[in-house]
Amino acid sequence: MTGTPVCDFVRAYAAKVPVRLHMPGHKGTGPLGCEAMDITEIHGADDLFHPEGILAESEANASRLFGWPTVYSAEGSSLAIRAMLYLAYTQAGCKGRCLAGRNAHKSFLHTAVLLDFSIRWLWAGDNYLSCPVTAETVEKAILEETEKPFAVYLTSPDYLGNVADIRGIAQVCHKYGVPLLADNAHGAYLKFLPVSRHPMDLGADLCCDSAHKTLPVLTGGAYLHFRDAGMTERVRQAMALFGSTSPSWLILQSLDAANPYLGHMPQAIAAIAPRVAALKGALLAHGFTLVGDELLKITVHASHWGYSGEEIADILEGNNIFCEFADRDFIVFMLSPRNTPEELEQLQENLCALPRKSPITEPPLIRTQPDAVCSPRQAAFAPQETIPAKESLGRILSAATVSCPPAVPIVMCGERIDETALEAFRRCGIEHVTVMK
Fold this sequence. Notes:
alpha/beta, 7-stranded mixed sheet, 15 helices, globular
């Protein structure tokens, strides 16, 4: 059985009711009730980025569970994204471009600003929440590059629950000697399906998971997985380069405490899977349109039922049901084995109680690829001003407008705002944008 060395240490320390002459300033008491378990790097604890004791032992436990070398992040997948891009870029001698799915999280763009690497965006699909990149798309892009890309970067699963062909894309990447980096923030649980769909098992070279999104971990807990144990020290240096020297010990305990649970995760998923399948089947039989193929995510095409996603979210909130995400077209529900059968039944009853209305048939947003005028770094560091979006035609964006949740940004830093972007701003309710002066 997997142990919990971090939790064991902190509990033993708190049980002593010690005189705390160290950080944090709450001294183990306070209004939240968890302060006694919140510590710093005292004697006997460990250093997250140079672990030799309890954190090293806990990460080793996680590595055995996932089957790959794994390190912790207490700053979400954002820290892991910065680290894996740094690792790939420096490994390539800071040469070449990154080929990236356009639905990248804003931390990807922030890292491009920090490291000043060039991006070739991989465009696919017809909406602003999905970017279904294929192996053929990736191979074509690699062959068109004059210099070998330093990485291919993909977000999978996406926010609607679509899962990319990681295996096929990884085979293409390795054919040309290009590492595949996967933002698997929404898919940590994919490792524990009857047949793993985790990107690392499908060929990714570096991969981040947001443990807190689909596993029983506090917000901010995440993993960075890598293929070669020989690069462990480089990985830790990369995490330290971008990470806080004061990681949350509450989050670290949560990651540690999750390890024994992960040993039983396959059984927990097997128990909830038929219930989720039955719920999806009932919604389809009732007439709803569902999107995506991810097991533990239900995405309803709300506009097909005559509502915006926001309208359905408001109705559900009136009945104490809270979704993950809603916009004018979709409403997204993220599930985990911790959701009870009664909660799934409650969701089904409330959705099926919505009277069907005429579908909302507003024409889809037209997507065009904006002109890139300068690099993201140049745009981010240039003098800026914030102006009404309707007055921004022809201006160069300096701050992303749609990037979290992982969507397909209307315009990226350094790109020119065109007529298509203006209409997208209007439809998405974006009233102001930050542009270069």
